[in-house]
What we know:
Elements: H1 3-19, H2 26-33, H3 37-43, H4 47-65, H5 75-91, H6 93-97, H7 99-105, H8 107-133, H9 141-165, H10 173-191, H11 197-201, H12 203-210, H13 216-222
Amino acid sequence: MTGTKTRILDTALDLFNRHGERNVTTNHIAEALGISPGNLYYHFRNKTAIVAALFERYRQQIWEWLPPPKGELTWQDKMHYLQGILESMWQGRFLHRDLPHFLHQDPELRAEYTQFVQDGMERGLQIYQGLRASGLIEASDEDLRALMVNTWVLAMSWPGLTHGLNPAAAENETLDRALLRQGIYQIVCLEAPYLRGEALNHLDAMKAEFRVGDTTVNLLFTASDPHVGEVSNG
Length: 234
């Protein structure tokens, strides 16, 4: 990928995440880069093509952040996976926030996203199976599949929920990331009944790592307070 093409994607991602894709035009992207619209169109024929390229970048990052398990896993490996989910939510937050719009607008992206969900759920199940084989989780096959689906749904929908309740947070990266971080705390709580061994022993540490507010409900509905973003992560 050329340097200009990469810069276009980097700039578009920043603008989309801060302002929302619908509020950003190709002219805005070109202006922010200091290039002509014609130069931008040389690399991307329209904004839909930019979104598709950003989704492909996001998909590749997901696989890097959530590698398939190799050998016995530790609770630190579990923390690594949780951090990977947080990074995916953060880097691709504009996609999560307006996903139905993108999928309805672009049939090709919808097909790619459908495959991504299938692959992602398969990867998620592999990870949970690895955690179970390592004695960090105890669950039946049915419960393990349900846990994987619920974790996926929570991770994919959380950015949209927080943005819908607190759209102004997109302009405050500290607050915006804090809201997403609380979503990982919710995943830890979702997994808590199934944790065993050292994962259970470190449950309080995992909660403290991602907890931002006293309660998730309070955080969601009081995040317009500028001091919320200053809350310690433990």
